[in-house]
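Hi all, long-time lurker, first post. I run a small reading group and we've been trying to get comfortable going from sequence to structure in the token notation. Rather than ask abstract questions, I figured I'd post a concrete chain and ask someone more experienced to write out its structure so we can walk through it together at our next meeting. Sequence below, copied exactly:
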Amino acid sequence: MPEQQLVEIAKAVGADARVVVMDEPTASLSGREVENLFRVVRDLKARDVGVVYVSHRLDELPLIADRVTALRDGALVGTRPMAGTTRADLIRMMVGRELSAVFPKAEVPVGNVVLETRNLGCRESGVNGVSLAVRAGEILGLAGLVGAGRTEFARVLFGLTPADSGEIRLHGKPVRIDSPAAAVALGIAYVPEDRRRHGAILDLPVSANMTLAVLRKVSRGGLLDFRRERELAEDLVRKLGVKTPSVDDPVGNLSGGNQQKVALARWLAADPAVIVLDEPTQGVDVGAKAEIHKLMGDLATRGLAIIMISSELPEVLGMSDRIAVMHGGTITGVLDRSEATQERALELALGGAKAVPA
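-- Answer (accepted) --
Happy to help. Here is the structure in token form:
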């Protein structure tokens, strides 16, 4: 994803355009790549090129924007000079209310270890010697720079690229996960990073997307029971607050945040014990981000073990009970919530000395 994003940016810059529209250009980029992008934007401005920069990463705007415009529900809320406009001002403009907590972390009692890996490795993916554990009711954040191996590790856990060394334990017992079907049968769910390509089938209706992982629940005698499918989908729409005119609408018609909720709903219908969320709030607005974070807290309260992969350190720090940091396909350190800082996490992400396994 990061490389694809950079190619798209290069294509736009190389077109010698007078106006360049960048839609979430840093969604998949690391800190160094973001700095390079900002340098390119400044060069474009110096050449009298206009840049429309669409972003939900509010911390970036003071660094790059001259003016800021907020939209809500498809309508213009207002335009202000960036100088003197605070993050709180932007949030008020975007969601129409005070947002007391972008990261509403719920205090949940942590239970027994649900999933554990011991020296897990996969030569094909570059994952090497990963040892960590995640407990019932816990959100384990997985941080690291682009290329650190976080998504690759998630794919190993889900059987997309099966491990060739080490061990996976579920509820204390060794298991073999050599395919996604095996992972699903064991109660492991995975919401991938690129929801538009892998997380949802955009042309299919909401109802079909939500029930893909539980077809047996909505079938009788090998035939799909459309009434049961609709009932299950409408129940999930209510529980997750998905904004859609109907469960018959194609997922591609929904906003990014609602597409992400549909991708989540598919796996929640399967009642998993472990769910891996890869960039769960990438490219969604502040309001949807807070809703997804609240949903994660609700899932933890229900006893799910959650592994959350995120490139946004504030999100990792705000939502995680513990943070495992990866570099070069392995774990370089684990931080408890009480001791975690952006500086310490970044030090480990850059390959700092290894700490105690998760």
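A couple of things your group might point at:
The mean pLDDT is 87.
Residues 30 and 109 are 33 Å apart (CA to CA).
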